[in-house]
């Protein structure tokens, strides 16, 4: 069972994120007022302000002085499944408890308890990416499907608040190349790291875009 939000601020963040992801509040439309949230969650103004600060840090909302908080225009495009980024039309996954964990240790990624599987991405009948995926055990329940999008499933479980993309040129011996740029992706929930994945992508399909937001 997934642990429920343990603070008022986390409860408010989850509630507001649901409003944004479900598009119940459209882009550039005003979010619930601080006063309304104080009444709904029976909490202090500081808890509400802290929740909105978290959402601003994620790029989910922006604020206008004396007017309120609004849904950010580009938020729905911030976190995409890797299959979408790669343009793959098929993928196959296999549970594997013996995946190489050396890179996790090298990057100081420590799971309390995890499940692991390997995934192959296919486009036009050809393999374009090999992936090793590690997921925090509490999210790997009976409804978790290793053949579905890892990102989408964690988002639906409130298992991702932010994601880190790390690219490194390494020895891989894949696709006929000794060295390739490897994509490492790891994400966090409210408490700790929730998943980590390593992607070795065919160079013809390596097209990663990056976007950042100013909080000013």
From TrEMBL:
PROSITE patterns: HTH_GNTR (PS50949). Coiled coil: none annotated. Signal peptide: none annotated. Pfam families: GntR. The keyword DNA-binding applies. Keywords: DNA-binding, Transcription, Transcription regulation. It comes from the Bacteria. GO terms for molecular function: DNA binding; DNA-binding transcription factor activity. Residues 6-74 form the HTH gntR-type domain. The keyword Transcription regulation applies. This is Transcriptional regulator, GntR family protein. It comes from Mycoplasma crocodyli (strain ATCC 51981 / MP145).
